[in-house]
Design goal:
mainly alpha, single chain, 434 Repressor (Amino-terminal Domain)
């Protein structure tokens, strides 16, 4: 799964969350979360689920429809 950096940033802004706060809420190391968002790397579904849950949205709202190479 590859997540949408733009969608994550929009949802963060709407909720007033910093990347550190989002990482804490998702139980992910802040440096790892930054890397996941910025590098558009593949992540495991459970990780995407934790990020989505921390943002209060379904996973489908944060993943890219097409893989970015």
């Amino acid at each position: 799964m590859v997540i949408s950096k733009e969608r994550i940033r929009l949802l963060q802004a709407e909720r007033g969350l910093t990347t550190a706060a989002l990482a804490t809420a998702a139980n992910i190391d802040p440096n790892r979360l930054s890397h996941i968002i910025c590098a558009k790397i593949d992540i495991q579904p459970p990780t995407a689920g934790r990020i989505a849950a921390a943002l209060g949205v379904p996973v489908a709202e944060i993943i890219l429809r097409e893989r970015v190479e």
